[in-house]
Amino acid sequence: MGTPNNPQKKLALLVLAAGIGSRYGGIKQIDGFGPHGETIMDYSLFDAVRAGFTKVVFIVREEILDVVKEKFLPKLQGKVEVEFVIQSLDKMVPPQFQNPERVKPWGTGHAMLCARDVIREPFVAINADDFYGKESFESIANFFAGETSGEHAMVGYTLSKVLSEHGSVSRGCGERDASGFLKTVVERVTIVKENGKIISKEKEGDRELSPDIPTSMNFWGFQPNIFDFTQKLFNEFLKNNEGNLKSEFYIPLVVNEMIKEGIGKVRVLPGSDNWFGVTYKEDKEEVSQKLKVQVAYGTYPEKLW
């Protein structure tokens, strides 16, 4: 798949790096995994630059802003435009819904919304601590290089390839229609492998899942008009969840509502076979080995920058 070569088309990468890795026990966004201490984010940034992205926007917590700037700004300067945005608990939250007792971030949908003042072009939202693979960036860059003004996109990974050997995971399980558009994405919060089967542990009992389900690993492509809709939905969410200090506003919630209301279509694009992520401390060694393999194959240079 070729790299789009259209200098007129702007495309931003929105890196969601404000999460708190409670199960990992450290700041996994800036932890070193590559042969020379590269973060997972380094590989995504490298893939985005070579796929023709023109801008990178980092969403961070105030506490890690300086270290993220120091780590990534020198690498990206002269290659793409760079912006840093802080996801704070009161950003984009009307005063009547601000609660001094809340400590938990509002979730990925709110993180995305925090970038609305700095993004005017089509953009791709990703997690900072997931490795998505070169092909996924090429796939979505090619999508936006075409005539896609009315469409958004989700890179869909095969469910069987995005599970952890070290415990349960939460995954957005997608369903597409005959034309390749997303019908719905359902967040299943406790997915495990048991006796050769993939099981979702749910209140109603165990549900067996097909290994081939197109799965959201939070790799989304949006037209900039998504921000108005997201703000409207977030305000409704705040009203409905007043007093719930743990409620989170996720991107799939925005996507499902948009599809349901017929406001936008979401094309499901193929993902790389090489997704991997870090949920648990035990994942670290495995991720480092997988990155070494990618370098050995020549997909990435030994020293990225």
Could you characterize the architecture of this molecule?
Strand 1 (12-16), helix 1 and strand 2 (55-60) form a beta-alpha-beta unit. This protein has a single domain (12-297), classed as Spore Coat Polysaccharide Biosynthesis Protein SpsA, Chain A (Alpha-Beta Complex), CATH 3.90.550. The longest helix is centred in the C-terminal third of the chain and has 15 residues, at 226-240. With 305 residues, the chain is an alpha/beta fold. The protein contains 7 helices and 13 strands. Strands 1, 2, 3, 4, 6, 7, 8, 9, 10, 11 and 12 form an 11-stranded mixed β-sheet that branches. A two-stranded antiparallel ribbon has the order 5-13. The protein has helices spanning 40-50, 65-76, 108-113, 134-145, 226-240, 251-260, 283-297; strands at 12-16, 55-60, 81-86, 123-127, 130-131, 151-158, 169-176, 182-194, 197-202, 205-209, 214-222, 265-270, 276-277.
Question: How do the helices and strands line up, and which of them pair or pack?
Answer:
Elements: E1 12-16, H1 40-50, E2 55-60, H2 65-76, E3 81-86, H3 108-113, E4 123-127, E5 130-131, H4 134-145, E6 151-158, E7 169-176, E8 182-194, E9 197-202, E10 205-209, E11 214-222, H5 226-240, H6 251-260, E12 265-270, E13 276-277, H7 283-297
Parallel strand pairs: 1-2, 1-4, 2-3, 6-12
Antiparallel strand pairs: 4-11, 5-13, 6-11, 7-8, 7-11, 8-9, 9-10
